[in-house]
Design goal:
Length: 413
């Protein structure tokens, strides 16, 4: 069969709906400045779908730093990969400050978080090693493990008995192959908002010999007293062997970093294929990240405001009888029951009649019959935004239970 013909016949589990949903439910265009209210199809909507946790995306000092750096250096400098011709003192300065902030000896910049994690796993593990990971790990972790030629064991999400069982299997196998064991989990799970059980995981180091890699994309900047992440929150950051975070969330930028012992970072710098064979992070992004990190460290009130909004939103949704699962972070899921047409009709109602934009997740990402609406509170939302949203969600939940989204067509896209 011709490859293209095969693709045309099967667009994939999500792609099969592209004709019905493209531009509205998938690939929507949010326009204007990044803030709680943005333009969608010519209308201003209250937006809860952007990971701009600390409100830095449109911070005047950030905008100024980005603009001045772009004017001074352009987007091309430095040219080439870090190892060849893309090294600068500013790159090193950012790495030093990131390492200090998260309590590690050293750090290394990544052009993108996703490709960085894939490459980290590829660089760390050889055929004789064993990987053990949480079943709800992010796609970048799964894709990195797909490249791994050795054995991997998955444990049920946050199930510590399951992890202990898999560590037993991994230990017996590693004893035969002569390899090591890497446990991978997330600090904050980005869909459900619950936390990786880091305290119990590091406690198992007394029973098993393994290293721990934590993907803290949603925890960096949001968790812990200073925002240094989920390890800080649990008081176990010194026991996290490899700490990974991205700039795409709290830092409102592009890129990421991995932090660990100095010799391990030196190894990664010389072996991360996603960095060795890719252009260095452009200078404006590096200088912009330095400014963002400075603001996170010098303005703890941003973190406090984020949590005041998150607590108000989550408390209000629960009091309204809505199911927000087991979130322990600002990530706020709202779980409902219904089929795909009901989900799309409800989201259409929220956008067109209530002026609220949030992310929708349905099968095949989650099981059939479930609907997940994910809200991301930020430090620049207001309590008025919160109260309005709670009221709208409560009304939509009632309509869903009454079957109105199943029997009534809200509107055509």
């Amino acid at each position: 069969m011709d490859i293209f013909e095969k693709l045309r016949k099967d667009m994939g589990p999500i792609g099969q709906y592209q004709k019905q949903g493209h531009g509205y439910f998938a690939f929507p265009k949010l326009e204007g400045e990044i803030k709680p209210r943005m333009m969608f199809r010519g209308r201003e909507l209250l937006t809860w779908s952007l990971n701009n946790y600390l409100g830095l995306a449109n911070h005047p000092e950030v905008r100024k730093a980005d603009a001045e750096a772009a004017a001074q250096y352009g987007m091309a400098y430095p040219m080439g990969a870090r190892m060849m011709s893309g090294q600068t003192r500013k790159h090193e300065e950012l790495e030093e400050k990131l390492a200090e902030f998260v309590g590690k000896q050293s750090a290394y910049l990544l052009n993108y978080g996703y490709q960085g994690m894939v490459s980290i796993i590829d660089s760390l593990l050889s055929r004789n090693d064993v990987a053990v990971y949480d079943s709800e790990s992010h796609a970048c972790i799964i894709d990195g493990l797909r490249l791994f030629p050795g054995k991997r064991f998955v444990y049920p999400h946050n199930d510590m008995n399951g992890l202990r069982k898999q560590l037993g299997h991994a230990s017996r196998l590693a004893a035969k192959t002569g390899g090591g064991i890497l446990v991978i989990t997330e600090g904050v799970f980005g869909m459900a908002g619950d936390l990786g059980n880091l305290k119990e995981i590091v406690g198992m180091k007394s029973e098993f010999n393994f290293r721990l890699l934590v993907d803290d994309a949603h925890g960096f900047g949001t968790m812990g007293k200073t925002g240094a992440g989920t390890g800080e929150y649990f008081g176990v950051q010194d026991k996290v062997d490899l700490y990974f975070a991205t700039f795409a969330k709290s830092m409102a930028g592009i890129g990421g970093f991995i932090a660990a012992d100095e010799d391990i970072i030196a190894y990664l710098a010389y072996n991360l294929r996603s960095q060795i064979f890719a252009k260095s992070l452009p200078m404006p992004m590096v200088i912009g990240a330095l400014k963002r990190l400075e603001l996170i460290k010098s303005h703890p009130e941003y973190l406090e405001k984020l949590w005041s909004i998150a607590h108000a939103l989550q408390k209000g949704l629960k009091e309204a009888g809505l199911d927000i699962g087991k979130t322990q972070s600002p990530v706020t899921p709202v779980y409902m029951r219904g089929n795909l047409p009901e989900a799309t009709n409800m989201v259409f109602d929220l956008r067109e009649n209530y002026g609220i934009f949030c992310s929708i997740v349905v099968y095949p990402v989650i099981p059939k019959g479930q609907i997940l609406l994910r809200l991301i509170p930020t430090a620049v939302h207001t309590l008025e935004d919160v109260n309005y949203t709670i009221d709208a969600f409560a009304k939509c939940a009632t309509k869903l239970k009454q079957g109105k989204y199943d029997t009534e067509k809200v509107a055509q896209i």
